[in-house]
Write a structure and sequence with these properties.
This protein is of the alpha/beta class. It is built from twelve helices and 14 strands. The chain has two domains: about 240 residues, Aspartate Aminotransferase, domain 2 (3-Layer(aba) Sandwich); about 120 residues, Aspartate Aminotransferase, domain 1. β4, α6 and β5 form a beta-alpha-beta unit. α2 runs parallel beside α8 and α3 packs across α4. The two termini are about 30 Å apart.
């Protein structure tokens, strides 16, 4: 039997497993012709609120919109500073800049690759108004400490949970809370490759604050509460009914998908832990890890050569992320220069993400593991 072609994310095999449910959900939407703000969207909203244990879910057009609407709802003023990590996807700083706010980037932790608490403390000024921690690659940032800092300095916390849906954080008092549900607002993306992904663009905002929820619903709907009466400047951002239908079919499987990713990650960890050329992902002490990405640090071998050799063997591998935010041309800032954030810059030079999805089988894992070890150890 020929091994299935290895994909970074295998959506085809995932779809084949739930085809009947997905097709039935989509057929209901088409038959009803309720394509915008239909009952499937409301159903998904309530399903996700129940799953996460959060009071309010506001579906949006994508994860970037979710972040922008969240910041718009806080009533921040031009020049207000928002702290976020420099090692992350561009959207986190992009929305800050688009709103005329000032992105203040900080370094990250070497082991977990999440935002550094010490770096946050050093970056706070009288102009700081919010912190946007990113739950990178599938595990929560050190939220208890971040929330303590925010309380001390009267700051908002907007969680970027776009890579970490279903990750859980355990507080020192024993409370267990889902990623995105700890700060004032949380945001996620349903991009197809996410752990919970639709078949197009989609996103959502979470909050336990009813006042913020009402404001964000209005902002996402052109600033409108009563039809054709616009009380604030808003945007047009909505999850369409077909995408909600897909998510309704997938959500009951999310725990199963998470367990599958964690199982694959344990195989990787065990296989690479004694390889001196590789550092396996570090784990946040209080967070579970849902492995949106399985990201190695290649420290005793050429990362780019390993990527090239894996490609020759039919194994895709990706670099998330090759350029930190402070070195991106669009965000060039006289406050920052190369060398200011040594951990992020070192990570950008050595990280490599291996295939990670819900349908990696033993044969594929064995082949990936054998190939990585063979290339780096020879």
């Amino acid at each position: 039997m020929i091994m299935e072609k290895i994909q970074m994310v295998d959506l085809r095999r995932q779809y084949a497993q739930i085809k009947q449910q997905v097709d039935a959900e989509i057929e209901e939407v088409i038959s009803s012709t309720a394509f915008i703000k239909g009952p499937k969207v409301e159903q998904f909203q309530h399903n996700l609120e129940h799953f996460l244990g959060v009071k309010n879910v506001i579906p949006t057009g994508n994860g970037t919109d979710a972040l922008q609407i969240a910041l718009m709802a806080l009533g921040l003023k031009k020049g207000d500073e928002v702290i976020t990590p420099t090692f992350t996807f561009i959207a986190t700083a992009e929305v800050v800049a688009l709103l005329g706010l000032t992105p203040v980037v900080v370094d990250v932790d070497w082991d977990t690759m999440n935002i550094s608490v010490d770096a946050i403390r050093r970056a706070i000024t009288p102009k700081t108004k919010a912190i946007v921690p990113v739950h990178l690659f599938g595990q929560c940032a050190p939220m208890e400490e971040i929330l303590d800092i925010a309380k001390e300095h009267h700051l908002y916390v907007v969680e970027d949970a776009c890579q970490a849906i279903n990750a859980e954080y355990t507080f020192s008092d024993g409370r267990v809370v889902q990623a995105g549900c700890m700060g004032d607002i949380g945001c996620t993306s349903f991009f197809p490759s996410k752990n919970l992904g639709c078949y197009g663009d989609g996103g959502a905002i979470f909050t336990n604050n009813d006042e913020l929820a009402a404001r964000m619903r209005a902002i996402a709907n052109h600033g409108m509460i009563v039809r054709y009466h616009h009380d604030m400047v808003g945007v047009n951002s909505r999850l369409d009914s077909i995408q909600a239908a897909v998510l309704n079919a997938k959500l009951p499987h999310l725990d199963e998908y998470t367990a599958s990713r964690q199982k694959a990650s344990r195989r990787y960890d065990e296989a690479f832990k004694d390889n001196p050329k590789i550092l396996i992902p570090g784990h946040e002490a209080h967070s579970t890890h849902v492995f949106h990405q399985y990201t190695l640090r290649i420290v005793g071998f050429s990362r780019d050569l390993l990527k090239e050799k894996l490609q020759e063997k039919g194994i895709p591998a990706m670099i998330y992320y090759p350029v930190p935010l402070h070195l991106q041309k669009a965000y060039k800032d006289d406050r920052y220069k190369q060398g200011d954030f040594p951990v992020a810059e070192k990570l950008a030079d050595c990280v490599l993400s291996l295939p990670m999805h819900t349908h990696l089988d033993d044969e594929q894992l064995d082949y990936i593991i054998q190939s990585v070890n063979q290339i780096t150890m020879n």
